[in-house]
Design brief:
Length: 152
Amino acid sequence: MQHVLFVCLGNICRSPMAEAIFNDLLEQHQLTGQFAVASVATSSEEEGNHPHPGALKAMRAHGLDASQHRSRPITAEDFDWADTIITMDHANVANLQRMAPNRVDAAKVKLCLDIIPGREGDPIDDPWYTHKFELTYQELATALPAWLDELK
């Protein structure tokens, strides 16, 4: 079983959206038994909080529900658990590589849009700041099928 961990700053916008979209893709492709998926934060400031209302609204518009999700910060156990860590922007990458218990764990960290030709190095901007939750959804919905193809 492959373990995929999605990470963003607060775990209330991008990473729970990615978790919900990826789980939906797994169901559509009948691959739920081959993957385990989770999402976490690089920061503890939102710990215990629900996803942002804008993220929930964007997901609901596409038939997804992450209302039971609660933010939590990444732990050393998460690095050990994950086979692949997909993150949203360069600050997340830098923070995770600094936090990683070892080089093997640091090598698991990938930038989400790097999987899309022509988008290598592009961040998925934090909609907490931009308020562009639908754009965030669309960027994730473009990248995550490619990640699924890469990982299966």
